[in-house]
Amino acid sequence: MPIYEFVCKDCRHIFESLCFTSRDIESVRCKRCGSKNVSKLVSTFSSRVGSSSSFGGGFSSGSSCGGLGGFS
């Protein structure tokens, strides 16, 4: 599923939006205030590594970055 994470530059609300095309991404509005002044965030992902018997179910974070680019 092409779900992207965005942050509103006006009210700093972080939200997700389903976007199939680049046109969908360009038309995203903040779900809280309706502003078009939003930025797409770089999201982390999970991937399966090792066997299912390993600790944590065999899933590993795709990124070690925990910050939100100054939008916390």
Q: Assign the CATH topology of the domain at 1-43.
A: Rubrerythrin, domain 2
* Strand order, sheet with most strands: 2-1-3
By DSSP (H or I, 4+ residues per run), the number of helices equals 1
How much of the sequence lies in strands comes to 25-35%
As a percent range, the share of helical residues equals under 10%
- Written as H for each helix and E for each strand, in order along the chain, the element string is EEHEEE
User: For this structure, what is the CATH class of the domain at 1-43?
Assistant: Mainly Beta
Description:
The chain has one helix and five strands. It has 72 residues and is mainly beta. It has a domain at 1-43: Rubrerythrin, domain 2, CATH 2.20.28.10. It has a three-stranded antiparallel sheet, with no helix packed on it. A two-stranded antiparallel sheet has the order 4-5. The radius of gyration is 15 Å and the shape is elongated. Residues 62-67 have low confidence and may be disordered. Pfam families: Zn_ribbon_8.
Topology, please?
Elements: E1 3-8, E2 14-18, H1 22-26, E3 38-40, E4 46-48, E5 59-61
Antiparallel strand pairs: 1-2, 1-3, 4-5
Domain Putative regulatory protein FmdB zinc ribbon: 1-43
Biased composition (Gly residues): 55-72
Protein name: Regulatory protein, FmdB family
